[in-house]
Every structure is written in C-alpha cells, then in structure tokens.
Amino acid sequence: MNKVVPTADDAVVDIAPGSTIMLGGFGLCGIPENLIAALVKRRITGLHTISNNMGVDGFGMGLMLEAGMIASHIGSYVGENRRLEALVLKGELDLTLIPQGTLAERIRAGGAGIPAFYVPTGLGTVVAEGKETRKIGDRTYVLEQALHADVALIKAWKGDRLGNLVYRKTARNFNPAMAAAAKVTIAEVEVLVEPGELDPDHIVTPGIYVNRIVVGAAYRKPIESKFIQSGGAL
Amino acid sequence: MNKVVPTADDAVVDIAPGSTIMLGGFGLCGIPENLIAALVKRRITGLHTISNNMGVDGFGMGLMLEAGMIASHIGSYVGENRRLEALVLKGELDLTLIPQGTLAERIRAGGAGIPAFYVPTGLGTVVAEGKETRKIGDRTYVLEQALHADVALIKAWKGDRLGNLVYRKTARNFNPAMAAAAKVTIAEVEVLVEPGELDPDHIVTPGIYVNRIVVGAAYRKPIESKFIQSGGAL
Amino acid sequence: MTGKERIARRIAREFHDGFYVNLGIGLPTMIAGYVPAGIDVMFQSENGMLGVGEPPTDECADPDLINAGKQPVTELPGCSFFASEESFAMIRGGHMDMSILGAMQVDEQGNLANWTIPGKMVKGMGGAMDLVAGARRVIVAMEHQTKDGASRILKECTLPLTGQSVVHDIVTELCWIRVTAEGLVLTEVVEGMNVAEVQARTEAKLLVSPDLCVMTVDALV
Amino acid sequence: MTGKERIARRIAREFHDGFYVNLGIGLPTMIAGYVPAGIDVMFQSENGMLGVGEPPTDECADPDLINAGKQPVTELPGCSFFASEESFAMIRGGHMDMSILGAMQVDEQGNLANWTIPGKMVKGMGGAMDLVAGARRVIVAMEHQTKDGASRILKECTLPLTGQSVVHDIVTELCWIRVTAEGLVLTEVVEGMNVAEVQARTEAKLLVSPDLCVMTVDALV
C-alpha cells in the first residue's frame, strides 16, 4: 500500500472540468497551496468549490478565481477577496454563503453517512429560507443536508505512505472533515514519514480517508492579515 | 482554574439518585473504574445509565447492577453480563439496545447541539420501530435523537488541572463523546500533568468539556476475555 | 479612555474564573487585554483553538497559528487545537459561557444584524450565526450610534438578521442594556449621562431598571 | 482443512491491496490469518482502531489495546486509534471496503439476522447493524447449516433482522452465493459437491450462475 505520488501535478492530473472540489484551509492557513497551484496550471473550468474562504487576490483559491476556473462556490466568508465580490455582484459566479459551523457539520455529515441533521443555527434568517424547520423539545431547528465532493484537496503537516495525517496548530481546520467527504482525497504534506513514525494516538486523519499523498515542493504560507496589508507583495 | 478533586469519593459526592449517567468504556477497556467504585459505595438508586456495555459480573458497571443501583440502561451490547440478562428477562430492568454507531452518534449529537439526525442504520429492523423514516436521495433513513446526561463519568490516560485529556490506544472509545454530552463531566486519569505538558495538537478532549478531574487511586484494568475465562478471579 | 476601551473594560468585569469565551473580530478582541487579575478565562477562536494568547511579535508570528480574524496569535499553557467541526460542536453544543460580538443593528426582540448589507457587501457570516445560536450568553459590544449619528439599537432590525432573539446584553460606551421578554432594560449608564440622554440616542424604547446604576469600568479586585 | 478454515481461506482471496476491512467476531476473525502475500489489508476494529495486528503473547497483552471482541491485539506500523463516533462515521460513511460477519440466518432478499433470539438471548447488536448498513460490500461467513442440520439460508428470515437487503455475498464451507435482485445465485461449489446437493441443504431457492465453478481456496500468488 503506497499512496505517495511524486508531484502535485501528478496528484491532480485527472481532476475533470465541472468537478465539485472541497479545499481545506481557513483563510490562507492550512490551505493546499501546492495542489492549488498545480490545478491552476491545468486551467480546467466549471469547478464547483466548497471551502470556508476563497483565498485572497493573488494567492490560494484567489488564483483559481482569476483563472476563471470557478463556476460556483459554497463557503462562509469571502470578505478578503475583492475580485469575488465583484463577480458575484455582477452575477457571474454563483455564491452560496452558509454559517461556518453548519458548513463544517455538513461536510462531516457527508463523510459520516448522515444525509441530514437539524441545527439551531440561522433560524429566522436568510439561511433558513426554503429549508424545513421543526420543533424538537422547546426549540425550533433547521434541517441541513450533507455535503459531498468528487475531490478533496487538503493540507496536513506530516503524513505517511498509508495516508495517515497529522496537522499543526490552527492549520487543521476544515482539512480532516473534507478528507472523509470526497470520492477522492488528495493530501499534500510538508513532511513524509515512515508508517509507524506517527504515534497512532496522535493521528487525526487515518489513512483510510486519503487516496493520494504528495510532499509539497515549497511552502510560502503567507500570513493573511499581513499579506493583505502589504498588498500581496510578500 | 483548577478542576482537580482529591479523591474519586469527592468527585461523585453530589450525584443524585435517579440521575442519568453516561459511563465511558468499551467492555472493560477505558472504563472509569475508580469513579464507579466510589459511586457503588454511595449505593444511590434509580440511575439511568448510558454506556456501550454493562461491565461483567463482578467488575465495572456489573458492580452497580449487583448493588441494585440501575433502573434503566441504554447500550449496544450486554452479552457479558449474565446478571443483567436475568433481570431483563424478568422485567426488573428497562433495557434499550441500540446500534453501537447510532449510540455513539447520538451521544456526539448531544454534545454538539444537534437535536436529531438521519442514519441508514437499522432500517427495517426493530430499532426503527416507532421512529420516523424518510427518503433522502435514493435511500431511506431513520431519524435518531440526541442523548444527554446529568453526569458523564469518563476515563482518560493523562490530564491536566484545566481538564485537558488524552487517551491511550483503544481505551479512548466512548469517553470523548460523553465528555461533551453531560451537564457535569467527571474524568479520572492515570497521570496528572501540568498545563502545557500535553502537546496542544494531541489533546483529544479540551478542558472546556471537563468539570472535575481526579487521579484514580489504583487501576486493575482486567482484560475482559481473560477475566471471563477465569471467572473473575484476576 | 476611549469609548471602545470603556466597553472592553466593562465587559471584562463580567468574566468569572474558569469562563470559556469567544471574542468576535474588532472591538470584542480588545476585551482580552482587560481580564481582571486572578481570573482565568480561556478564549476560543472558532477556527479551532482554545486558550488563545496575545499577539506575537512580528518575528515570532507563525502562519499555522492564527485566530478567526486571520491574525497571528500565541499559545497559552493548556491550550488545545481541534478541527472546525469540533470547534462548532463546542459552540453549537452550548459549551461557551459567553460570545461577545459586534453589531450593525440590534432590536427590541434581541434580534441581531451584523453580517451583510444587501447589494453592497458580499462577505459572509463566518461563524457569527453559529456563535449567537449556541453560546449561553451573547453580548453585543458596539458603539452606541453609527458615525452618522444614527441609532444602532432599533425597534426592529432593517438589515438581514444574523440571529433571531439571540442577544442577551448590549454594551455601548454609554450604557448597559439587558434584553428581556418585556423589552430592552437600561441597567447602567455612564457617569455624566442620564436616561433621557441615552434614550435620545436610541430608536428602541428603553425601559429603566429599578436597580439602574452608574457603569463602573475598573476591574473588581 | 476444516470447513471454517475453507471459508476463511476463500474469503481472504477476495482482498485487494489497500483494502480496509472489518472482521466480525468468531469465524470472520480467522480470515486475518490467510491474507495472501504481497497484499496489504488494514483491518478495522469498530471500538476505535485501524491496522489491527495479531494477538499478542499473554505477557504482552495490554488492557488498553483490544479488538471489538474484547480480545487483546497488537499494533501494525501505520495503525491509528480514534473514538467510537469517529469509528462509526468511518463505517456508516461507506469507507470500509468490506465487512465480513457471521449470521444466524440470511434470506433471498439479502436480509440478515445475527443478533437476537426473542425471549432467549439478551445480548445486543453491538456494531453489526452499523456495519451492514455502511460497508461497501457485506459478506456473510458462516457454516451452511446449524448443528441440527437446519438451513441458515432461508426463503425469509424468521429471527429479528440485523439489516434489510444488506448482504452481498454468502460464503459457507460448501459454496459461494451472490445475492442479486433476481435472488440467490450459486457461483462456486466446493469439490465433491454438486448443485443439487447444495440445494438440498438450503431452504432458499438457489439460481445457478452460468459461470459456476469449483471453489478454490489456495491464495492467488
């Protein structure tokens, strides 16, 4: 069992135009930057992306947006991407904004075989419009559906050739849930280790969820708040 | 912030008769054996227990059963406890058996603010009787409700005075989910460490879920398959 | 003392030892600087951290260690990291003692609007809807009026809601207002202001608490 | 070779490199001993482990390291531990390539009964209902008949079900049966048996595959 592929280009070579793709990360923290760069080289279009944010102008998913690859997006916050805001206001990109916790739980549900669940979040707001609500106990809840994807592109700190992954600090975020919710999960890591080197008690994503693993060729990891202040000049 | 209590007796001193109590562990692995022993000393009755198993005759929750403390039980497997089987067949204990994964997910839901969710498990079997079913996509699912408790008694390997916990190998099982699903969570650990000694990336149960933490005075940790073979003579 | 500082100092006095608190972006983040001595409060950041410490120096900033505002932070001893679905299980499950966030509008029903202006702003609600639906106590920390002098405390919100009947308290540089089933109740007013002056700056009807007192911002020691 | 060994050896031939498999208690556990050389299979134990190794010696048994049958096991390199809700998210979410378990009864619709005998046995279903509802392929591994010679492969199960239309294949010491929309299809029969003899030991109606062949139990190399 060896899930290692040599390069990020190899890892994304068969992703089809029109695919639904989950991308891990919160802001620019814990994003699969090498896989995104490889995907941008392929310039496939009509992608349906699911990711908490949308990168920034000039980095991360912002590059996919600039290359015109994205047809629709589901996320919770896109405030740092001015290009997206313009596209949406012009009606050229189909944007669905949902609460961050509901997004995370819908992705988890997708991986966990739970097709739908109730949450209190968003009751009486636009996010509940058109959704079934239901009183359970003394509170009313909104029915939310699982999210699935064709491909998940995720980023971990260390991994082994069986696909076991560990994350570092707040770079964990959406990556583990997405690993389980896609038909094909591709993980990029900073460090590849031998099976057995990761303490089995510390593994966050068991290899069963990972189909391909690649060591990222280089990591820029800009800090978003500084990146934006400095106009992307990092 | 210091959640450490001196002894298991102190930890369980205010648990009321008739309480609903979750107890961590799978078989005899990862059970809060010191907290159970302390509770058994108090001989409070009418308890409603939620735990995957029911210990064995002579150890773990089996001791609570022998002391006549349990009025009802929700679990997935009680095959190792002959006394329970007898009580149930005589109608003296209200036993609800549910699938192990549904049990785990209902407990997680209780801690996660999700009042109900759909699963494929048990459709067309007795566990779906009286429950709402619903077609979502091309499959039919069963609606399941969250489980909550007044108290969770759990067992971890190491913990700090803020209540952060790590588990060892398969002794993790139901403990983390239960920690989040009760009004008061009491954790017993083998080793108490200083805050900061546990790597923040390795913490499985953040301290927010734990109200009291106690170092177990002694651990027998019998291996169930051998315990039963040797008739409890370990 | 600026108005924002007064708000931050006053809210910090509400903390009890052992509290778990989520601070929103902007003004609420300032509150972390005023936690009274002897009180341990664990701050949560919804991107997956409990036990958030102060901002680091520029040289020590770690791109893998940020808060929900995407700013670098540091670790406190006993902090922990977890995934997004765990973080929001914690929030939605009612484990946070307090969520403190900013607002564009709050109204007499405790409705909150703080995430969008239709046709103008496409940003997203982030974790705000989850926080107000899940925390045990939701405190709005904001300046009493807009820069144009318009009231932010309204009879009824006009912007799309973040949450319906979710706010427990509103704290501004002028006063403390409790949201009750009867309506908005003024419980504290800063020195140099009176009830009529606060009401004049407020569209919503303010009831006056029989225990109305002066807002004190010094830490209780 | 005993009948049980034949079943275990035959099923082990179904494994592909990289498979994730859950083995039920009893007979299915034996299968782990016959994984063909050069094939990496990761065995899951639903109490929270992936990468289960062989049983330890008595001296090396660790009470914190058991399988779902509560027996001590060992760790393989690359194994991992996780909580129960994660383990069943993995199972329910369709991530297990195969679940192999014993049965008391299976029927023509692929219904399975293996957890209770009303009025007689109070044990519980454990993780069986989750496994059959979640795994991509469910194989029943059992002796063809009860000790009394009664058929376990029925027109319709009489015991309470573990799952409805969940079984994909039935493997006994006599034959391999595929569950299809048309009914049960006999695809392999052991040497020394013929279709009529298998049908005589089976209450359910068996259709015969046009590709019927002899069941081979040697590992493919």
From TrEMBL, chains A, B:
Enzyme class name: transferase
Keyword vocabulary terms for this entry: Transferase
EC number: 2.8.3.5
Top-level taxon of the source organism: Bacteria
Range of residues in the leader sequence: none
Gene Ontology MF terms in the entry: succinyl-CoA:3-oxo-acid CoA-transferase activity
Name this polypeptide is given: 3-oxoacid CoA-transferase subunit A
Automatic annotation (TrEMBL), chains C, D:
Any Pfam family: CoA_trans
EC supergroup of this enzyme: transferase
Keywords, in A-Z order: Transferase
GO MF term list: succinyl-CoA:3-oxo-acid CoA-transferase activity
Gene3D superfamilies, per database record: Glutaconate Coenzyme A-transferase
Enzyme Commission number: 2.8.3.5
InterPro entries: 3-oxoacid_CoA-transf_B, CoA_trans_fam_I, NagB/RpiA_transferase-like
Domain of life of the native organism: Bacteria
Keyword RNA-binding appears in the UniProt entry: no
Claim: Phosphoprotein is one of the keywords in the record: no
UniProt xrefs under SUPFAM superfamilies: NagB/RpiA/CoA transferase-like (SSF100950)
Family under the similarity heading: Belongs to the 3-oxoacid CoA-transferase subunit B family.
PANTHER family with a match to the protein in the record: KETOACID-COENZYME A TRANSFERASE (PTHR13707), SUCCINYL-COA:3-KETOACID COENZYME A TRANSFERASE SUBUNIT B-RELATED (PTHR13707:SF57)
Name the record gives this protein: 3-oxoacid CoA-transferase subunit B
Organismal lineage: Bacteria, Pseudomonadati, Acidobacteriota, Terriglobia, Terriglobales
